[in-house]
Write a structure and sequence with these properties.
Length: 146
């Protein structure tokens, strides 16, 4: 049987770049936190609580937003969901970079201790971004030819 299916063309490699950015956005915050654990241990004494709070917040926000995205997928286009997820990734990255520069610059000596929990906010936003865009990537992947 002949197949009349025409292969879609990705002339500017947009799909490849989107998947690459998705992978980087998912893995970067976790790797950054894991590599900086010793530094956080020295700066913030309650690292055990801090680390598990970050992991829990990220997982819960990812699960909740993934469920919400699956429910609302009929009403919001995949492109909008993916763009929203990537926007949240960029916000999270900006927060993490600002936090890291403040910590490395020893600015926390004069600032309140609550700023030490900025990575938790970054983890929350990352989890939201993953939860919003990941189901859209699954739907795109399911439509690709094998």
């Amino acid at each position: 049987a002949t197949d009349d299916y025409t292969k879609p063309q990705d002339t500017f490699h947009i799909l490849y770049l989107a998947f690459l950015f998705q992978g980087m956005a998912i893995l970067f915050p976790y790797n950054a936190f894991i590599f900086l654990l010793d530094f956080y241990q020295e700066r913030f004494c309650d690292l055990h609580l801090f680390y598990w709070s970050m992991v829990t917040i990220t997982i819960v926000s990812n699960a909740l937003f993934c469920l919400l995205t699956n429910i609302l997928s009929e009403y919001i286009s995949p492109a909008k969901r993916i763009l929203t997820g990537h926007l949240l990734y960029l916000i999270s990255l900006a927060l993490f970079l600002i936090f890291s520069s403040l910590v490395v610059g020893n600015v926390f000596d004069s600032l309140p201790n609550t700023l030490g929990y900025t990575p938790l906010l970054s983890g929350l936003i990352t989890g939201m971004g993953i939860g919003i865009s990941q189901p859209s990537y699954y739907s795109i992947t399911s439509q690709m030819p094998s």
